[in-house]
Amino acid sequence: MIAFDIRCYDRLESTQDEARRLAQSGAAHGTVVVAGEQTAGRGRLGRTWISPPGNLYLSVLLRLDLPPRRVAELGFVVALAVADALDRFLPGRARLKWPNDILVDGGKVSGILIEQAPAATIVGIGVNVRANDDGKSAITSLASAGSAEPSVAVARTAVLDALARRLQAWQSGGFTAIRDAWLARAHPPGTIVHVSTIAGSIDGRFAGLADDGALLLDTDGGIRRVMAGDVLIG
Ligand code: BTN
Q1: FRET label pair with 94: which of 63, 80, 84, 129, CA 20 to 30 Å apart?
Q2: To 10 degrees, what angle do helices 175-184 and 73-86 make?
Q3: In what order do the strands lie in the sheet with 192-197?
């Protein structure tokens, strides 16, 4: 099982950047960077991740010897681990949205950003524990969703424990069981989804995940595979 070496900071521009610096200076597999707030937190697709105090911001440095075609699997492993961890606060309520979003009552409570560095993968996890004050209704937090006095420290421990377990299961058992567990927490097959990709948008019905984690969409033109994009449900 992975052993985490946790480094805590009050404030960073982005835990991703600090983890990358540590990776470049030879830090080990399992190094974790945690910040109380971020001044330049970032999300997927070049977006900003608003990072006030009161939430969980961490990046985990992994040194995995993975062939490139398997790197996409990691996002599902991590999303599932975060959903497991949130069961501690809101049992059974965290749902997964392709590719790596964690939702509660339809609002995004956590996001995952996976970046490559030389000889390392940096897994960034943000969980809205108490703060979600950017005014967007599509964002929620554990507190807003009804968890009584959720704690950032408890969330951090729960996320890292669950991540260690899911990584172990993935490395010893492969992607199939992870994919099945992910699907059990995702939008049901047949759900109408709208996907925006850099090549344009696609409407269809959710038809599961391919072996490599691609989104499968049942469209008027047949089954389409999507490797990167954003999903809107309904
Ligand atoms: C997304 O859903 O767009 C991904 C959000 C990832 C946010 C986390 S917070 C910790 C780490 N540091 C960052 O700057 N981003 C990730």
Answers
A1: 63
A2: 50
A3: 222-226, 215-219, 200-209, 192-197, 230-233
Residue 136's CB: how many other CB atoms inside 10 A? 11
Which atom from ligand 1 is nearest to the alpha carbon of 100? 2
20 lines ligand 1 (CB under 6 A): no
pLDDT, tens only, 48-88: 999 999 999 999 999 998 887 788 899 999 999 999 999 99
What does each C-alpha distance from 79 to 1, 82, 107, 135, 157 come to in angstroms? 18, 5, 15, 24, 15
Minimal-distance CA residue to ligand 1 atom 15: 42
The mean pLDDT of the chain is 93
Q: According to the 3-state scheme, what is the secondary structure of the chain?
A: CCCCEEEEEEEECCHHHHHHHHHHCCCCCCEEEEEEEECCCECHHHCECCCCCCCEEEEEEECCCCCHHHCCHHHHHHHHHHHHHHCCCCCCCEEEECCCEEEECCEEEEEEEEEEECCEEEEEEEECCCCCCCCCCCECCCCCCCCCCCCHHHHHHHHHHHHHHHHHHHHHHCHHHHHHHHHHCECCCCCEEEEEECCEEEEEEEEEECCCCCEEEEECCEEEEECCCEEEEC
What tokens were used for 112? 């995952």
Answer whether 98 contacts ligand 1 (Cβ < 6 A): no
* Index of the ligand 1 atom closest to the CA of residue 110: 2
What mean pLDDT is predicted for residues 214-226?
A: 94
